[in-house]
Amino acid sequence: MAAEADSRRCPEPGVSDWRCVGPVEQLRKQKCRRLYAEAGRSQDVALFYVGEKFYALEASCAHAEGPLDQGDIEELNGCYTVVCPLHFYEFDLSTGKSESGLRQQTYEVKQEDGKVYIKFSCELHLRRPERK
Predict the structure, then answer these.
(1) Residues 61, 86: contact at Cβ < 8 Å?
(2) Are 53 and 79 in contact (CB under 8 A)?
(3) 17-125 maps to which CATH number?
(4) 35: closest CA among 48, 24, 26, 23?
(5) Cα separation of 91 and 101, whole Å?
(6) N or C end of the chain: smaller count of CB under 10 Å?
(7) pLDDT digits over 57-106, tens only?
(8) Domain ranges (residues) in the chain
(9) What is the distance between the alpha carbons of residues 99 and 42, in angstroms, rounded to a whole number?
(10) 93's torsion region: left (phi>0), alpha (psi -120 to 50) or beta?
(11) Taking the model in full, what pTM does it have?
(12) Taking the alpha carbons of 77, 80, 85, 88 in that order, is the dihedral positive or negative?
């Protein structure tokens, strides 16, 4: 468990807001997963892996807080969207925009040295952290 914790808490030197969320090989096995923010559920991130690329959006839908990490992923002309499972709003994974006018916060993602990093304000965890 300690080694896993270390793999998630390895920000790039000099840039404290790049958060290491885990190894590329592990994270690309799922098209979508929820990353749990240390700051609380309202800050959770949905990490997507489609078209050989990672995308990160706020995990709760801007309309009614539906779980985007449980939504369907669709592709049209090389553009990927996630469909909210509650009311079927679609959000572009690259921009966070919806044709409805709603918008999800997006986060920068990079791969470096076999790990995935997200530019984010607090630590992100693969499992829900225990609250004390």
Answers:
(1) yes
(2) no
(3) 2.102.10.10
(4) 48
(5) 10
(6) C
(7) 999 999 999 999 999 999 988 899 999 999 999 999 999 999 999 999 99
(8) 17-125
(9) 23
(10) alpha
(11) 0.84
(12) negative
